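Q: What structure does this chain adopt?
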Amino acid sequence: MVQQLDFISNGRIDLRTAERLFVTFRETLNAYLWGSIVLLHKTLSTVRASSAILTAAILTVTALHVPDGTSALDKLYPVFLELTSQSVFARYHTLDDVRGLCIGAFWGSDMSWKLPGLAVRIVTELNLPQRLWSR
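A:
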């Protein structure tokens, strides 16, 4: 189920454009990221339901790389920055939030050192290192 008040349903970007950008990321750009292990979702709706940060990262990065993406990028980049800024003070996070930060860090050179720091903090809060070592 999609979060009721996500940035797509609020009209920050239209659904048709979001779907097109998502498919482009899934079919092309995702392969550049660690052998496609970053994007586990097959549809935009499952990404939207899981993490607004991941959704914004995927759409923003794709808008940056498609020939006609300037208009979408102008709308999406501020959304990604806003969601990332809010996540600094958020209490709860998901692994998909971390994935979104990694995508943003990989493709967004202007934030490439800030986003991994936030991702490491979230991973630590999720106690992920302990879970990995206790297997």
